Amino acid sequence: MLNQTATYALRAMAYVARHGRERPVLSQTIAEEMDIPKNFLSKILNRLVQEGLITSTRGSKGGFQPARDPKTITLREAVSPFMNLDAYRNCFLGLSTCDGSCGLHKKWQPIQQRMLKLLDETTVDKVL
User: Fold this and answer.
1) How deeply is 97 buried, as exposed, middle or buried, from its count of CB atoms within 10 A (0-12, 13-18, 19+)?
2) Distance between CA atoms of residues 26 and 16, nearest Å
């Protein structure tokens, strides 16, 4: 359901939430532990910093830490900078003009609602 970038972002965010509370974690460590390409991870981490979800500290004792208590960061916050969740709100195919007449529409609506509820009600401390 999530695109690859959003999946990587969620894995990285969850890793930082779990291991970065006491001391910053290095991007190299996150890349290796979460099996995320380093160059791609760098862009993801930068965006998470911009979104205010993690902090970045430079230097020999630097790395990444959660910007807030991970119990207050929802999955939606972690993935929405990397994919347009609204595109799938009404249409399984992500079409901007959907009249709901296709056979998938009625089957998709309950799934979509459960997925959005999961993203809204689950926090990153519950992942991994």
Assistant:
1) exposed
2) 9
Q: Are 25 and 19 in contact (CB under 8 A)?
A: yes
- CATH for 4-126 is 1.10.10.10
Instruction: Tokens for 37, please give them.
Output: 């390409």
Domain coordinates in residue numbering, the chain: 4-126
Give residue 1's Cα distance to chain centre.
12
Residue whose token pair is 């970038």: 5
* Encoded tokens for 106: 């009625």
Mind listing the pLDDT tens digit for each residue in 40-75? 999 999 999 999 999 999 988 899 999 999 999 999
pTM of the model: 0.89
pLDDT digits (tens, 9 = 90+) for 10-38: 999 999 999 999 999 999 999 999 999 99
Q: What share of the chain is helix, strand, coil (3-state, %, to 5)?
A: 55, 10, 35
